[in-house]
Design brief:
By secondary structure, this protein is of the alpha/beta class. Helices cover 27% and strands 28% of the residues. It has one domain: P-loop containing nucleotide triphosphate hydrolases (Rossmann fold), CATH 3.40.50.300.
Length: 237
């Protein structure tokens, strides 16, 4: 990771996302050690977005952990084979691990995260999805506190973190509880937008604390190589 000079006259260590066009939006890459909320409606590409970052890291010497609280590891692997037929080789070599979370106790969940990170010396971690924190807590402020606490656990291990959130259909907000976006360093929102009677994909970096970045809606595509973003194109012309 090389320090990059930003318009803010800061030297920020960055990591490469592995998603075509995304690092250009962030003026050079993702600030190292940040925790990013990847949010969107169902089918917008959240899981693919996170897995692509972990897959790229694993292929470049950075071990990755994917905690899934909803889908099975088998289903995630089968889905991602569309983009990387060698994903099982990464898992077999220990560079990438998908962990199914079945716990309903928050303290045990925190312990699992720490143990798994230490076990493989992870550098990239994803949690899918933090909407399931409602299993642990009854009130919103406790959920926010937990997100901040888990974020700090990941940072303390010198990891880059991704947390998957959800945008409810028909609601003008970025997350299920309305607090997730305030507890992280950055927010990336993925959209399915209607145009001429059909849907097009788009993404927007809503915030990123440690770097300058584009704020506009950027066209996005999912092809055989995964997610591709077009920073210089426009959604509506």
């Amino acid at each position: 990771m090389e320090p990059v000079e930003t318009k803010k006259s800061e030297r920020v260590a960055r990591i490469t996302s592995g998603i075509t066009g995304f690092d250009e939006i962030l003026k050079g890459g993702i600030p190292s050690g940040d925790i990013i909320l990847v949010t969107g409606t169902p089918g917008s590409g959240k899981t693919t977005f996170c897995m692509q970052m972990l897959d790229y890291g694993a292929r470049h010497g950075e071990r990755g952990l994917y905690f899934t609280l909803e889908e099975s590891a088998k289903d995630i692997i089968e889905q991602f084979k569309t983009f990387d037929k060698g994903i099982e080789d990464l898992i077999e070599s220990g560079m990438l691990k998908i962990v199914e979370v079945t716990l309903t106790d928050y303290e045990s969940f925190k312990g699992m995260i720490m143990e798994e990170m230490e076990a493989i010396d992870a550098k990239r971690v994803a949690i899918d999805s933090i909407t399931y924190f409602q299993m642990f807590f009854a009130d919103i402020m406790s959920i926010r506190k937990a997100i901040i606490e888990v974020s700090q656990i990941i940072k303390n291990h010198n990891c880059f973190g991704l947390m998957v959130g959800e945008i409810p259909y028909g609601e003008n907000k970025l997350s299920s509880f309305g607090v997730e976006e305030f507890a992280v360093d950055g927010v990336v929102a993925l959209y399915l937008m209607e145009k001429d009677g059909s849907f097009i994909r788009a993404m927007r970096v809503v915030k990123m604390r440690n770097t300058d970045h584009l704020t506009k809606f950027c066209p996005m595509d999912i092809n055989e190589k995964g997610i591709v973003i077009y920073p210089n194109a426009e959604i509506f012309t």
